């Protein structure tokens, strides 16, 4: 179905239908009336009055107050409604998402957002919003609107070109500084306290780097009507600027396919298969294939928990490193209030060497715990992310004698990493960020006592 035909088909679903629109709007009239008297209140009333006859004027009247009024539920809702009818779909999404972030049970905002997603052919997201509204026991007028959207949605899903439900791509460039790309201690003499002292001193080295990244996401129909499939392909290449560091230039390409099956209204099961390839200095270094099973449960409209079990096969250019990895991780997400979001993650990962493989240290066990806080103020393009993580790494065999003056030991590492990131999202397409990170690692082997700082500036474009 062409975009022109789709627009015509949605004329009763995502464009103003005066009688029905007014009825649906009245559902949230009480919420809109909560706005207290403000300098922009009179313009809000005028914009609502002229919405049906002159949506462009209504939109322009409201958008002029965005810096002052963004974050007010009534203002953002009516700005979103006017933006839809003035064909400013990106602005509509921004405004309506602000409403939902503050008041998750705002049925009118979710209904409008579903209409925008339909126009942008983001069918999976449209269906999700309709499912949420239907769970709110909407009144008859809202049910009529939902039925119109469902009709348009089903037409798209059953049409010949409905294999793809939604898709987006991302291109990014990064510039950064790495204070310790070799992961060396500040200075280490391999032959300290021996007649060869001073012949092999390893020092920490720094480099600046540039990086390019690309990602494509596509949501497809699943094996049944209730299922969906997510296909993600990504690529990344890092180029170290310093001459001695270019042998550590790394490139990665990865692709994954996930089948998502709803288990209940609040939970879903995910089965993922993925393949990745890593090159180091232009030469093949490692190929990994994995399969993972995950489960997500929404505790309420502010919290969810996710669990995953993954089996991964790692094949290296040097076969003595070949291993099979097992990972179990759990993630808890919590929206604390209108400004702060919290993410807590814990994982356990083991690597078991293949028969005949002879990697230093043998099998390994890695335990990790992370906590991250995300600050986002409604109406502001600025965001902040703060995080800290602790990791423990244990090897099973006594080894690493070359790094311990000839004495073999079982290596035990413990590291603490802290990061802070500033993000700027001036539009729905552009994102910029500045991230700083520092890692301190201590070990029972002095050679693996490491400090590393990384600073990175990024620009991303979504389309």
Automatic annotation (TrEMBL):
Matching InterPro entries: Beta-barrel_TonB_sf, TPR-like_helical_dom_sf
Q: Which Pfam families match?
A: TPR_19 (PF14559)
Decide whether keyword Repressor is in the record. no
Where does it live in the cell?
A: Cell outer membrane
Domain of life assignment: Bacteria
Please provide the record's keywords in A-Z order: Cell outer membrane, Membrane
What are the annotated GO cellular component locations? Answer: cell outer membrane
Q: Could you tell me which SUPFAM superfamilies the record lists for this protein? A: Porins (SSF56935), TPR-like (SSF48452)
Name this polypeptide is given: Uncharacterized protein
The organism named in the record is Pseudohongiella spirulinae
């Amino acid at each position: 179905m062409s975009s022109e035909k789709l627009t015509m088909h949605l004329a009763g679903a995502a464009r103003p239908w005066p009688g029905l629109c007014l009825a649906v709007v009245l559902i949230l009239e009480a919420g809109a009336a909560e706005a207290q008297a403000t300098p922009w209140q009179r313009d809000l009333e005028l914009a609502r009055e002229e919405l049906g006859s002159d949506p462009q004027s209504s939109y322009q009247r409201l958008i002029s107050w965005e810096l002052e009024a963004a974050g007010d539920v009534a203002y953002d809702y009516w700005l979103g409604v006017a933006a839809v009818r003035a064909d400013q779909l990106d602005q509509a999404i921004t405004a309506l998402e602000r409403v939902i972030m503050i008041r998750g049970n705002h049925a009118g905002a979710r209904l409008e957002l579903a209409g925008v997603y339909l126009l942008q052919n983001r069918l999976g997201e449209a269906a999700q919003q309709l499912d949420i509204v239907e769970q709110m026991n909407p009144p008859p007028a809202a049910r009529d609107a939902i039925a119109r959207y469902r009709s348009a949605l089903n037409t798209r899903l059953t049409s010949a070109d409905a294999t793809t439900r939604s898709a987006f791509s991302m291109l990014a460039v990064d510039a950064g500084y790495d204070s310790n790309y070799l992961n060396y201690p500040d200075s280490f003499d391999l032959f300290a306290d021996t007649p060869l002292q001073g012949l092999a001193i390893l020092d920490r080295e720094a480099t600046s780097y540039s990086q390019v990244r690309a990602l494509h996401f596509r949501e497809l129909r699943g094996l049944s009507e209730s299922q969906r499939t997510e296909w993600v392909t990504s690529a990344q290449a890092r180029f170290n600027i310093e001459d001695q560091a270019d042998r550590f230039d790394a490139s990665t390409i990865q692709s994954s396919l996930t089948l998502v099956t709803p288990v209940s209204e609040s939970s879903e099961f995910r089965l993922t298969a993925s393949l990745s390839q890593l090159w180091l200095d232009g030469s093949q270094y490692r190929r990994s294939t994995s399969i993972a099973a995950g489960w997500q449960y929404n505790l309420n409209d502010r919290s969810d928990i996710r669990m995953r079990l993954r089996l991964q096969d790692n094949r290296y250019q040097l076969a003595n490193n070949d291993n099979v990895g097992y990972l179990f991780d759990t993630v808890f997400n919590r929206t604390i209030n209108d400004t702060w979001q919290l993410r807590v993650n814990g994982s356990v990962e083991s690597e078991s060497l293949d028969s005949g493989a002879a990697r230093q240290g043998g099998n390994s066990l890695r335990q990790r715990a992370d906590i991250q806080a995300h600050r986002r103020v409604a109406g502001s393009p600025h965001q902040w992310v703060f995080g800290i993580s602790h990791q423990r790494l244990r090897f099973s065999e006594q080894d690493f004698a070359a790094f311990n003056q000839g004495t073999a030991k079982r290596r035990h590492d413990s590291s603490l990493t802290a990061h802070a990131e500033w993000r700027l999202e001036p539009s729905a397409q552009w994102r910029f960020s500045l991230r700083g990170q520092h890692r301190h690692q201590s070990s029972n082997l002095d050679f693996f006592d490491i400090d590393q700082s990384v600073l990175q500036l990024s620009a991303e474009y979504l389309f």
